[in-house]
Amino acid sequence: MVCRPTFIVTIDVEADNVWARNPCPKMENLQYLNRFQTLCDSHGLQPTYLVNSDVAREETFQRFGHEVLKRKAGEIGMHLHAWDNLSGFKLTDQDFRHHPYLIDFPPEVIRHEVEAATAMLEKIFDVKMVSHRAGRWALNATYAQALVDNGYLVDCSVTPHYSWADHAGAPDGPGGCDYCDFPDRAYFLDLDDISRPGTSPLLEVPLTIRSRSYGLFDRLRTVANSARFIGRFLDCYLPTHDWMRPNGRNLGRMIGILNWSRARNVDHVEFMMHSSEFMPGGSPRFPTSETVELLFADLEVLFAAVNEHFRNMTLGEYRRSKTVTPEHHADLDSGKLRL
After folding, report:
1. At what angle do helices 107-125 and 59-71 cross, to 10 degrees?
2. Whole-number percent of the chain with pLDDT over 90
3. Using one digit for the tens of pLDDT, what is the confidence trace for 263-306?
4. 144-176 burial, b for 16+ CB within 10 Å, e for fewer?
């Protein structure tokens, strides 16, 4: 019997419309998570909720998260936004506006933030944190080592085929991570070079992204850099990347990713959204009640298609399904690594 590929649902749980860079963010979107969880329940899907520290302090999410864990209907993991850090360390006097990457911060701050946020989440939810996604998809070797040191077993920060280098973080920083040459399948990280497989206990589960080529239109796209209207038109109707992430007009492309992944014998497909995208006006992509209703209609179709050919796991469950290397067995025997 051929094992079906795994479909992993990940949700970044964070404040309302973080794209607006509000210095006093609200958390109203947390009230809309129940509808999404109910949809997942109806399709037998167990989401992994990757939780930011400001959200973890909210009673609304604490009640929701405890109920999800009690019913074994999902998993709680960590998501870090560097501008909302627990140490109080600031790179600028307006970090809320610049949204610096955690990798812009000194190594000792990175390590402190991972440790502090992990301790807070574990205390609130009384479970070991094993799953993680970096804020703004920014991961480096220092960050990965801090995750390992704090007992994390799986990360999902890599966006293969895609670069964030031209997305500014700290004003004097180098920008985001370039993941163009990273693997697009799950791999244990090399902690000296996170772009290649290694023997650490930290499994990288990249977001599912399909790179597209359109021949002549790709050449036109390079010319269109100076003509913004043409560039926006091509990005909208002929995107260079198909993401397993709803945007209100890509249901067909997401179904295409499912078929493409099965044809390539891919072991996992990873879906992601932000919690604020379930609330009208909580994000730029879904500004109205009508757009949110269309989103849920698309999710019904997508999740029904998933059930035909995929099995579901949380990030932690997927990590536990992976073969442990001989090096990991030594840590298991010594009690250093928990699966």
Report:
1. 70
2. 83
3. 999 999 999 999 999 999 999 999 999 999 999 999 999 999 99
4. bbbbbebebbbbbbbbbbbebeeebbbeebebb
What pLDDT, on the 0 to 100 scale, is given for residue 324?
57
Look at residue 60 and tell me if it is in a domain.
yes
Is 176 inside a domain boundary?
yes
Sign of the CA dihedral with 291 first, then 296, 297, and 302 last:
positive
Inside any domain, residue 219: no
Q: 323 vs 174, which has greater pLDDT?
A: 174
Q: State the residue range of the domain holding 324.
A: 6-208+244-334
* Domain membership flag for residue 217: no
Give the closest residue to 286 by CA, choosing from 244, 239, 245.
245
Residues facing residue 197 across a β-bridge: 189
Helix axes 289-309, 251-263, angle to 10 degrees: 20
Domains in the chain: how many in total? 1
Cβ atoms < 10 Å from Cβ of 71 = 11
Give the domain CATH number at 287: 3.20.20.370
Binned at pLDDT 50, 70 and 90, residue 332 comes out as: very low
Decide if 131 contacts 61 (C-beta within 8 A). Answer: no
From residue 166, give the alpha-carbon distance in Å to each of 123, 229, 293: 37, 19, 33
